[in-house]
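Q: How would the structure tokens look for this protein?
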Amino acid sequence: MKLYFSPNACSLASHIVLKELGLPFDAVQVDLRSKRTAAGADFTAINAKGYVPALELDDGRVLTEGTAVLQYLADLKPAAGLAPAPSSFERYRLQEWLGFINSEIHKGFSPLFNPAITDAGREAAKAQLARRLPIVERALEKQDYLLGRFSVADAYLYVVLGWAGKLGVDLGPYPALARFLARVGERASVKAARAAEGLA
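A: Here is the predicted structure in token form.
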């Protein structure tokens, strides 16, 4: 398999899960501005959407969208328990969290990456996040992980919450989120994926 990634993008979650599962793969870095891989290949020929992650399987098929990639990887090694069994109620709970992280937290941070954002736009984005982050805070006050044990949803949440400091979002009001970030950051898979992406 090949994981197409950009350092500290949401593809880091897939990178963490691959390390967690001990699956063999090649990591291919993508420049998201030029849409070129490190070797100079046109990334849009691999993923027409032009963003990461993209997972190229050994048979040449390509899977995109982080939440799909995460579940696919978890299902390659179901005994690892990174996703509940398909068709179980708990699996739908996982999908509920993945959808919320994707549409409300990840996309909530997205405007803050735009260097042309206005002050009003920045404050509106932060205000929207301030309405969503307490939901995750309350869940993590009750248990260490979103589903009670580490799952692909936690890998994804870890990555997007990790953008807060760089983007000026104060996580001070959310002590459970701070504990979660510290807890997940100590996992060997997280350290290995971050090191592979050249992250401090």
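The mean pLDDT is 97.

Residues 56 and 62 are 4 Å apart (CA to CA).

Upvote if useful.
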